[in-house]
Amino acid sequence: MTNHWVDIKNADVILVMGGNAAEAHPCGFKWVTEAKAHNKARLLVVDPRFTRTASVADYYAPIRTGSDIVFLGGVINYLLTNDKIQHEYVRNYTDMPFIVREDFAFEDGLYSGYDAEKRAYADKSSWDYERGDDGYVKVDMTLQHPRCVYNLMKAHYARYTPEMVEKACGTPKEKFLTVCEMLASTASPDRAGTILYALGWTHHSIGSQIIRTGAMVQLLLGNIGIAGGGMNALRGHSNIQGLTDLGLMSNLLPGYMTLPMEGEQDYEAYIDKRAQKPLRPNQLSYWKNYRAFYVSMMKSWWGKAATAENNWGYDYLPKLDKSYDLLQAIELMAQGKMNGYILQGFNPLAAAPNKAKVGAGLAKLKFLVVMDPLATESSEFWRNFGEHNDVDPTKIQTEVFRLPTTCFAEEQGSLTNSSRWLQWHWQGAEPPYEARSDIEIMSGLFLRMRKAYQAEGGKYPDPIVNLDWPYIEPESPLPEELAKEFNGRALADITDPKDPTKILAKKGEQLPSFALLRDDGTTSSGCWIYCGAWTQAGNQMARRDNADPSGLGQTLNWSWAWPVNRRILYNRASAAPDGRPFDARRKLIGWNGSAWSGFDVPDYKVDEPPENGMGPFIMNPEGVARFFSRDGLNEGPFPEHYEPFETPIGHNPLHPNNAQVTSSPVARVFADDRADFGTAAEFPHTATTYRLTEHFHYWTKHARLNAIIQPEQFVEIGEDLAREVGVVAGDRVRVSSKRGHIEAVALVTKRIKPLMIEGKKVQTVGVPIHWGFKGIAKPGYIANTLTPSVGDGNSQTPEFKSFLVKVEKA
Ligand SMILES: Nc1nc2c(c(=O)[nH]1)N[C@H]1C(S)=C(S)[C@@H](COP(=O)(O)OP(=O)(O)OC[C@H]3O[C@@H](n4cnc5c(=O)[nH]c(N)nc54)[C@H](O)[C@@H]3O)O[C@H]1N2
Ligand SMILES: Nc1nc2c(c(=O)[nH]1)N[C@H]1C(S)=C(S)[C@@H](COP(=O)(O)OP(=O)(O)OC[C@H]3O[C@@H](n4cnc5c(=O)[nH]c(N)nc54)[C@H](O)[C@@H]3O)O[C@H]1N2
Ligand SMILES: [Mo]
Fold first, then answer.
1. CATH number at 659-809
2. Family assignment (predicted)?
3. pLDDT digits (tens, 9 = 90+) for 740-768
């Protein structure tokens, strides 16, 4: 989230699109209710299904799965053509006046630089701004230049008309326009609108671009950086925010630093590429501090072994030849190129797409380690469960080791929620039987591996044998020790660069903020954005003072938020260029003549006078927010609609004559998966998968109460489709895709209606995801038997939300 849960109460308009907050985030959803009750907020829901969120909305509009870019591109077009934008904001705080290179082009669905063989934009050099003689980017503040971002963007989205929205999304034109009007009402500086989204946007082959299009809408409306605004990703597992913060994605390092690629053997070049210089005069470009964050992290990992001479251990870091995301891992297994796999709290046989491929891949491993409190489908993938898992164990070579772990309530530690708040929690129960914590198991594995490397050497033992392991009890580091480590400490006295006699932190002290991190090896910090969470004053994550002087829910003494306890990112943008808050009633910060102050930690240099013209988006080298993503996403600088890989209409309504761009030209597809895609001729119905309030993924089917209230797999189909296929409520149906079939109870509902797409009737089938063959709920099929193995071209997230099936009476 750019903002936070409580802040939702400050919104005037709330758009829930690509998520179902009332069911998947029922506690957080109370802030929507607060906004409605106390702020007369209007709630808009755009979803293929009439959900429980929709049931309390002021306005609901249906949409075909996977067509959100057409809808949101249509909103952009509406806002630009009807001049419903926050002018002062857009002109000063975005790249609209920036001039783009002359050789940048977009034609029939493709940007300049595409290489069809590689299925990638091999040459992105034209996706850039034009530079002046002074080296800075050229701008035209009058927005007249034909190649300024404003004019390019206007031309790009002119094709996204209300008629196109109706044709491609199936959303009736009047409904679409009503949503546009309600959103447009927040273009004025005294109105705020927020967008809440989740997996209904991410689970697509174009998911990242859908989210970017939403962010562009918010920028046009001046809704980023203000109370009651923002782009708010409602995250999934209770600590999934913490997972990405700490760099557990295969390409990440902690704090959103990135692992080097194979071609980046040179340390200085690695840093240079990431520590970008400002593109405009007087801008900050905060990532210029990358070196300090990197060096401090390496000191925290390798201690004395990380030195200036060895580039702080740069050679210890793996250099990636490719992304090692989930789809990649399964592909490598399926090809027999993976020996072993560790599942730590992960059940891919149930959770990953195309169960048949996952099962075949697991069967080719030599060993599989499962760290989990429960017996999962994945830990028993090798057993025959009849029609639900029809395998022959004698043909499976994989040796499976199960290491029972504790569950979160059986240990203490911190969880980072969607608001970026790190909240400390305390142990609530003793672990059962021989269960051990994840920390203890991982430490045990590490210490044994280190011993083996120490004894036997091996090809390159240095990264393992040199790892710093300073814990009181090496077999079981304490959560407190780890938390202090990711915060970081001074390894020497840290002085003020402006006044070397002034000591900011004494050697050995916990650091108060990443502003003190140094690139000379005198500081350590395991995760720079978490620096400030455990300071000399103690554990900031355990704070529980909910005093709120702002009345806006800015409880700065409740837990601790990254970065530096800032609650609303980009909050400098809540004030006009001259430093006065755009909306006095919702003041976050303002310029008081000598400093920025107010109800949040300024996302800005505290003593930077407004007249210096520093932009509010200090993490971008532009200093402003980007409509034109020059080095961002792989599909191109402006989001364009591409169809799901299994499309019910078979072509891209925006480019009907170019089959190359029917679906995303850069999505994650492996050659051998192409044969597993079905067509509408064979599989005429569009399916989407989702969760229910009554279950949490695949574990609550092990709990009796949950198993009683949602005992078995069902699928939701509309009355119209039910009539078409001759099914009544309660019948058993067979749902098949190119990958396999499941059987389920039919739930016939008014909540899903057929949509007319380019004159063709498209039926949506809803498939909840929660069942399988382990646990005490009724044994059943795994929903992911049906889903295709294809992913987003940036995040590689699978396309779980839009694929083709056929529904028949069983
Ligand atoms: N009770 C419960 N709560 C949970 C979870 C759980 O298992 N159980 N899981 C947690 C996790 S890990 C996550 S990631 C979150 C997920 O949170 P959500 O994303 O809110 O949950 P989903 O149910 O996957 O899907 C959301 C909605 O997207 C809609 N949708 C599908 N396709 C599209 C589309 O193309 N466009 C639009 N606009 N909408 C579409 C679906 O109809 C559905 O209503 O929930 C978390 N909360
Ligand atoms: N078709 C389809 N597929 C989907 C989705 C969808 O919407 N549609 N949603 C996707 C999403 S968003 C998600 S997040 C995934 C979820 O997929 P998973 O993360 O694989 O599912 P969970 O059942 O939440 O479980 C993980 C396991 O963690 C274990 N566990 C709990 N606490 C601990 C602990 O402290 N330590 C350890 N080691 N283990 C623990 C649980 O017992 C459980 O078996 O599914 C994805 N798959
Ligand atoms: Mo999730």
1. 2.40.40.20
2. Belongs to the prokaryotic molybdopterin-containing oxidoreductase family.
3. 999 999 999 999 999 999 999 999 999 99
From 213, 418, 717, 801, the mutation candidate for ligand 1 (largest count of ligand atoms within 8 A of CB) is 801
- Which of 171, 197, 213, 691 has most ligand 1 atoms within 8 Å of its beta carbon, as the pocket-test mutant? 691
Q: What's residue 408's pLDDT?
A: 87
Q: Which two tokens stand for residue 366?
A: 């030599």
Pairing of strands 367-371, 340-344: parallel
Of the listed ligands, the closest to the CA of 407 is 2
Q: Return the H-helix or E-strand segment holding 16.
A: strand 13-17
Which residue, judged by its Cα, is nearest atom 18 of ligand 1?
19
Q: Which residues contact 484 (CB under 8 A, 6 or more apart)?
A: 510, 534
The residue assigned the tokens 């990431």 is 274
DSSP 472-526: SSTTS--HHHHHHHHH-EESS-EEETTEEEEEEE-TTPBPS-GGG--SSSSEE-S
Look at ligand 2, atom 27, and give the residue with the nearest C-alpha.
Answer: 345
Q: Which residues partner with 44 through β-bridges?
A: 15, 59
CATH entry, 6-236, from 3.40.228.10, 3.40.50.1820, 3.30.450.30, 3.40.30.10: 3.40.228.10
Backbone angles phi, psi at 637, to 5 degrees: -70, -30
CA of residue 689 to ligand 1 center, whole Å: 8
Q: Are strands 421-425 and 413-416 parallel, antiparallel or unpaired?
A: antiparallel
Q: Which residues, 6 or more positions from 165, have their beta carbon under 8 angstroms from its beta carbon?
A: 70, 71, 74, 171, 173, 176
CA-CA distance, 244 to 252, in Å (whole number)?
8
- CA–CA separation, 252 and 143 (whole Å): 37
CA of 697 to the centre of ligand 3 (A): 9
Compute the average pLDDT of residues 531-549.
98
What digits encode the pLDDT tens for the residues 36-71?
A: 999 999 999 999 999 999 999 999 999 999 999 999
pLDDT band per the 50, 70, 90 thresholds, residue 280: very high
Ligand 1: which of 47, 237, 802 to mutate, most ligand atoms within 8 Å of CB?
A: 47
Equal CATH topology for 6-236 and 659-809: no
Nearest residue to 438 via CA among 463, 396, 410: 410
Unique residue bearing structure tokens 């599909």: 635
Q: Is the pTM of this model over 0.85?
A: yes
Structural tokens at position 583 = 């909306």
247/620 Cα distance (integer angstroms): 20
pLDDT score for 457:
94
What is the spatial distance between Cα 7 and Cα 384, in angstroms, rounded to a whole number? 50
Q: How far is residue 569 from each of residues 15, 449, 566, 621, measured CA to CA in Å?
A: 19, 41, 7, 16
Domain extents in the chain = 6-236, 659-809
